[in-house]
Structure formats: C-alpha cells, structure tokens
Amino acid sequence: MIDRSVKQVLEAALEAARWAPSVHNTQPWTFSVSEEEIGLRADTDRKLRAGDASGRELLISCGAALFTMRTSIRSHGFEPVVRVLPDPDRPSLVATIRPGAAAPPDEATGLLGEQIERRRTHRAGFTGLPVPDRLLDRLVAAAAAGGARLTPVRAPGAVDVLAGLTRAAQGVQAGDRVRSLEVIRWARPPGSSRKDGVPADGYPRRAAPTDPGFPQRDYSWRHDWGGDGGAGTSIGVPALLTTTGDGREEWISCGQALQHVLLLAAAHGVSAAFHTQALELDLLREFLRRELCSGEHPQMIMRLGVTFDGTSAVRRPLADLVR
C-alpha cells in the first residue's frame, strides 16, 4: 500500500527537477503548485538570446526537467499524469504533471531515480574503456520510447564530419563577441557562490586533445579558469539525437528522451559530453539534417564514454524556482 501523501510526492518531484540538465546549466524553468498538480514553466529570462533565439535548447532543457519529475513520481509509487503545452494562451506553460493511480515502481524506474542527483555532464576526453554495444542498444531504445532517435555514429568518415563541423562552429562562435560574452556569463569563476552556470571545476582550462578533435565551449574565455580537464583522450562514442518534426512539442519530447538516455547511461557508469555549437548555426544544422540525419532534425550532438573525473554540481534552491 502507498502511504506517501500527495504533498510529499510533489515536493520530491520538485526537488528532483532541480537536478535536470540544461544548456550551460541555465536552469531555465520555474514551477507552480496548485492543489495536487505542478505547472512547469519556461523561464525565458534565462534563454540564450544569441545562441538559442528560437528557444529550442530552452525547451529541450525543460523537457529534461519534465522527465525527471515523471521519474520521481514513478519512484514514489504513482503513475504520473502529464499534459504537454496544455494552454495555447500561456505559451510559457510547458506542461502540468500530477500523481495519478498508485503504481509500485519497477526495478528500471528505481535505477533511473537513483541517478537523478548523481548524473554529471562531462566536458573533456574520456578514458579508453569501451561503451558496451548492449548498453548502446538500450540507450537507443530509451530514446525511441520518448519519441526521438539516438544514432551512435561509428563510421570514421561521419565522425570526422561531426568533429569538423563542431570545430568550424566553435571557431565562428569564438570570434563572435556577443556569443562569447553569453557563454562566459554562465561560467562560474573559482569560489563563486552562484547556484547556476558551470562551476570552475566543471570545464577544463585546457582540455587534452582528442583525435579527431571535438572542441568544448570556451568557458574560460579570456580567463585562466577551469580544472585540469582530466587525462582522458578518447572521444568515446559520438551520437546524434534527432526528431522527425522540429516544433515545440518535438523539442520537449527530445528533452525527455535525452534525460532518459542520460540517467540510464549514468546507471552504467557512462557520461555524456555535449557539442551543440553546430546546431546553433542554421546552415550547419541544415547540412547535418540532410547529410547525416536522413532528413530528421538534429537536436543534440553528444559523445558517450567512461570517465572517473568527479565534478561538483550547483542548483538553485527551490525557493527561487517555485512561484
């Protein structure tokens, strides 16, 4: 018998949502609680004006928070009832979610729930330990269950294309002062008390080179911030996350699929490094769609691999998020 009150379940879901991944750890969401339902809203004040003018990455981030709440509610013994974009007159209302019927959690749900606060984004090379093919198959299935397609990129030529486009996009963006300032806005200097953005030990000062090279964001732009970046030089397994459509619903679905993949990967000791620079330039994103994604819309470029580097994580307190 489920003896947890709805209030406790909602509080746990809100606490879990804080740990969802977001672009530059902007945490672009707020929540409202009305009776037995949580409203998830996009915080457009935290949107990247230069890098994400359409709000695509913002809604992917919100989708990740939504899946995190769904997982938490399931972990506490209830089936989540979700409505996505429920009110056309309130476009910032991404979704509502509430506990439904009692449903004892299964082992898979418990496994995902345990990783919510443990999962970390990696921003350097990986060790040479392989990602098992069996796990990759499970990650592909997890993405498909959320309405997205995860495609591990194995062919050396395709890997070179992804790496080359990432380098080209990073080079263009590094020369754009507005974009560079936007990135550095979300880079936390050592000793900072901020509860958002990327901590100084969360990105490398000078990452060890990989072959081929997948450059990271330059969070240490014009500063000598950052950690040592670890000793790993493997690129891991590059992968593309795509959707058939390219609207707000698909972006939210992609975020949910992404978080499912990340939590499942983390449960098996695998981390992800993200490279969305090329997806923020329309011409390069369209090239990827046509040439590498079979006409589907690329929403995320990532590398999956094993790392033993421990990094800190910061999140805003619930008092700043619940309105």
Task: Compile the SSE list and pairings.
Elements: H1 6-17, E1 29-34, E2 37-42, H2 56-75, E3 78-84, E4 93-102, H3 107-114, H4 133-145, E5 149-152, H5 156-174, H6 177-185, E6 237-243, H7 248-267, E7 271-274, H8 282-291, E8 297-305, H9 318-321
Antiparallel strand pairs: 1-2, 2-4, 3-4, 5-6, 6-8, 7-8
Helix pairs in contact: 1-2, 2-3, 2-7, 3-7, 4-7
Organism: Nonomuraea rubra
Region (Disordered): 188-216
Domain Nitroreductase: 7-34
Q: In total, how many domains does the architecture comprise? A: 2
CATH superfamily of the largest domain: NADH Oxidase
Based on the coordinates given, report the CATH architecture of the largest domain.
3-Layer(aba) Sandwich
Low-confidence stretches: none
Mean of pLDDT? 94
Secondary structure tally: strands: 8
CATH class call of the largest domain: Alpha Beta
Report the sheet-strand fraction.
15-25%
Rg, alpha carbons:
19 Å
SSE string, helices as H and strands as E: HEEHEEHHEHHEHEHEH
Q: Given the C-alpha coordinates, what overall shape results?
A: globular
What oligomeric arrangement do these chains adopt?
A: single chain
What structural class do the secondary elements suggest? alpha+beta
What would your notes on this structure say?
This protein has 323 residues and is an alpha+beta fold. The protein has two domains: 6-113, NADH Oxidase, CATH 3.40.109; 133-305, NADH Oxidase (3-Layer(aba) Sandwich). It is built from nine helices and eight strands. A hairpin with a 2-residue loop joins strand 1 and strand 2. The two termini are 32 Å apart. The mean pLDDT is 94.
